[in-house]
Amino acid sequence: MGTIKLTIDNKEVIVPEGTTILEASKSVGIKIPTLCFMKLDELHYENSPGSCRICVVEIAGNKKLMPSCKTLCAEGMVVRTHNPRVLNARRTIMELILSNHPFECLTCRKNGQCELQNVASELGIREIRYPGEKSTFSPDVSPAIVRDLDKCIMCRRCETMCNSVQSVGAISAINRGFNSIISTGFGEDIELGNCTYCGQCVAICPVGALGGKSSVDQVLDVLADSSKVVVAQTAPAVRTALGKAFGMESDQVVTGKMVSALRAIGFNYVFDTDFAADLTIMEEGTELLGRLTHLIEGKADARIPLMTSCCPGWVNFVEQNYPELIDNLSTAKSPQQMMGAVIKNYFAKKLNRPRKDIVVVSLMPCLAKKYECMREDMSVEGDPDVNYVLYTRELVRLIRFANVDFQSLPESDFDSPLGESTGAGTIFGATGGVMEAVVRTAYSIYTGKPAPIIDFQELRGFEGIKKATIDFDGVQIKLGIAHGLGNARKLAESILNGTSDFHAVEVMACPGGCIGGGGQPFHHGDMSVIKKRAAALYDADRQKSLRKSHENPSVQKLYADFLGTPCGPVSHRLLHTHYTNRRKIVGVYPVYHESTKENGAICLSASTIESLKTICGKFNNDPKELINILHAVQELVGYLPKEVQEIVAEQLRIPLSKVYGVVTFYSFFTMAPKGKYPISVCLGTACYVRGAEKVLDEFKNLLKIKVGETTADGLFSLDCLRCVGACGFSPVVLVGKKVYVRMTPEKVRDVLNDFYSL
User: Fold this and answer.
1) E strand or H helix at 649, and its extent?
2) What are phi and psi for residue 576, nearest 5 degrees?
3) CB 160: neighbour CB atoms within 10 A?
4) pLDDT band, residue 602 (cuts 50/70/90)
5) Which residues have a Cβ under 8 Å from the Cβ of 154 and sit 6 or more positions away?
6) Strand 56-59 and strand 66-67: pairing?
7) Contact at 8 Å (CB) between 248 and 254?
8) pLDDT per residue over 38-58, tens digit each?
9) Strand 306-307 relative to strand 379-380, pairing
10) For residue 509, which of 168, 160, 142 has the smallest C-alpha distance?
């Protein structure tokens, strides 16, 4: 690859071909503000739609300012990144963005960490000169994630993360112009769709449009209730990220100070989820060896590969997308839920208190844990094993609420008996850590010998999918590891199609594992932060005197005093669970000989459903042909209701939100039956500048409908066109088969009367 020489702000810069101006500027220390742009090389993630235009620069000889994130460097190019013309343009762009943004900075969950707020401050914005219409959306509150779309700036980072990296497809861009937004399919609440609650959309959102659901107020209430015993448990990934929020280094483990802080806040007991991680290894390792034994014996119920179940985002993903693999999931609960079950059923008895008097608060790096603790199978007679989950950022707020000087706190130990752990439990927080912990114990149990090595380097690192073969004293155990749900999908597909020869698979939904969880302090696109967290966990593991889960004396005592044996009757009742097929049944509707409506739903005939599948098949079920498929489908059905879009999405194996986004973007698609006399207002440039929008507004006012809707009597429907090719006669309106030219708002009523009289 060749190089290019250019000048940026009077600095000579030499970069490889294909480098953008933004990247070239960064390489020489010139900062250009951005909002929509984000690049995470290790995750193969890049969001650069060029939509915000905050990064515009001036290029000598070019009349227009160009977005630096989309413009490639050229030989001899001369670039100015901060001259008066550029700065004035950026300020104007920022004011326009802010004109449709709530002024709630003081109460916003992103206050102090908002990229929009920071850039506006850097640009010296002190007033908004362009007041105008503002978006008004209802908040969407799910068990784990809160969406406040009034704050969305259409950077599309979340869309790229959800679709391209995580392959979940819960959200997509819909509509166009002022009404464009990132939404779920048909604007449904996010918990009604296929969101896994991995939280990666929250992790990269630059503003407060996406956030975690807060439980801080509820936790403060129970801390103030003297009738309750409030117990905290803390995940390994939290202690590697917490210190950064209080001015400490990213790779500094702050376990002792964290324990002291929790006691200062008022928790009665502080336990270590690492203990439960050791417990998980005992159960999951025993389960793996049992399945391998069945495999060797040729039994049909071997269910290989065993897939780890510690990550609730991954479990959600399997239940929704690959229910065929549910039996491959380990039945062992996650460490969070195991700890909750042990506290409520074992520790409560030691305190001689009923389980409902015990309140378990989990401190986790993960948003999906909030959903996990609410699952029906994670409670006893309505009393959850884990009452509340606080993600790391919430813990930071809680410590600050309590006015605790974190850096000056002394080091404290966890409480007994559920506070002792091994290094194997610690590395659960990094991708590959669960599998490494399993191998350390399973090898010893299977062979009766100590593992010859403890640090399995082949199971570590940030490669999306890792493969390794571990020699169990002559038996070759093949392992697969993935982090990020996009990589997990590839592993799942290989298992389904029979090309996988893995005996065990570990999956973490979040990049890097729990250390990159959606509830962790924001990394702002700096992957080195996540790598430092991983290094800190492995360093903590090396410093432990015990590094294998089965060597934990407290775990051994728990089995001896209470649980019995791993995977035995008591442990199976308390520490194991089951899973549910949550895949949406698509394309199955009440079938009638003619299309009818029942409770607002469309009832498609069996022949229509088959015809829809045939249309998709003619285009080889290729997602790239989506627009052509939708045209053909609309020609068949007449319009594109939700039920039809679901069938198309299922046949093409793409998210419903993607189909819905395309349908709402293009004006030639409609989701409602067209009226007897369809009205189409041309909004091409010539028509628009001559008042077509006011003509459209008058149609909406008189008909009492919006674009894409049909009047109650079925007489008229209203749509827009981009251009009808009659620019010399603009504005142009089509009503049925009639063409009206040089339209004005005053003529609209007369046009409608022409058809009312028919």
Assistant:
1) helix 642-652
2) -120, 160
3) 20
4) low
5) 36, 51, 52, 173, 180, 181, 182
6) antiparallel
7) yes
8) 988 877 788 888 889 999 999
9) unpaired
10) 168
According to DSSP, the β-strands at 733-735 and 677-682 are antiparallel
Tokens at 753, concatenated: 């009367």
Report the distance separating Cα 63 and Cα 131, nearest Å.
Answer: 28
What b/e readout covers 76-97, taking b as 16+ CB neighbours within 10 angstroms?
A: ebebbbeeeebeebbbebbbeb
- Between CA 587 and CA 591 the distance in angstroms is 11
Residue by residue, DSSP assigns 351-393 as: HT--GGGEEEEEEES-SHHHHHTTSGGGEETTEESS-EEEEHH
From residue 189, give the alpha-carbon distance in Å to each of 141, 519, 584, 639, 750: 8, 21, 15, 24, 42
Q: What is the mean pLDDT of the chain?
A: 90
> Alpha-carbon distance 496 to 506, whole Å?
16
The pLDDT of residue 638: 85
Q: What is the DSSP string of 471-525?
A: EETTEEEEEEEEESHHHHHHHHHHHHTT----SEEEEESSTTSGGG-TTSPP-TT
Tokens 């973490």 appear where?
Answer: 508
Give 684's DSSP letter.
Answer: S
Residue 748 CA to residue 447 CA, distance in Å, equals 86
Q: What integer pLDDT is reported at residue 176 of this predicted model?
A: 79
**Strand ranges for 698-755 from DSSP E:** 716-721, 733-735, 738-740
- CB neighbour list of residue 225: distance below 8 Å, 6 or more residues apart: none
Query: In this structure, is the dihedral angle defined by the CA atoms of residues 527, 533, 538 and 543, taken in order, positive or negative?
Result: positive
The label of the residue with tokens 């290029």 reads 59
How large a percentage of the chain has pLDDT more than 70?
A: 97
Q: How far apart are CA 500 and CA 502, in angstroms?
A: 6
The DSSP symbol for 150 reads: G
What's the CA gap between 235 and 107, in Å, rounded? Answer: 29
* Mean pLDDT, range 642-664, rounded to an integer: 90
Top pLDDT among 242 and 446 is at: 242
- pTM higher than 0.90 for the full model? no
Q: Which residue has the tokens 């449009």?
A: 209
Tens-place pLDDT, residues 523-539: 887 888 889 999 999 99
Taking residue 253's Cβ as centre, other Cβ atoms within 10 Å add up to 22
Distances in Å between the Cα of 218 and the Cα atoms of 221, 370, 394 are: 5, 13, 12
Say if CB 645 and CB 654 are below 8 A apart. Answer: no
Weakest mean pLDDT among 226-230, 378-382, 671-675: 671-675
Longest Cα–Cα distance in the chain: 93
Q: Which residues pair with 734 in a beta bridge?
A: 680, 739
> In Å, what is the CA distance from 182 to each residue of 87, 162, 172, 265, 576?
29, 11, 5, 39, 38
Give the Cα separation of 612 and 487 in Å (integer): 31
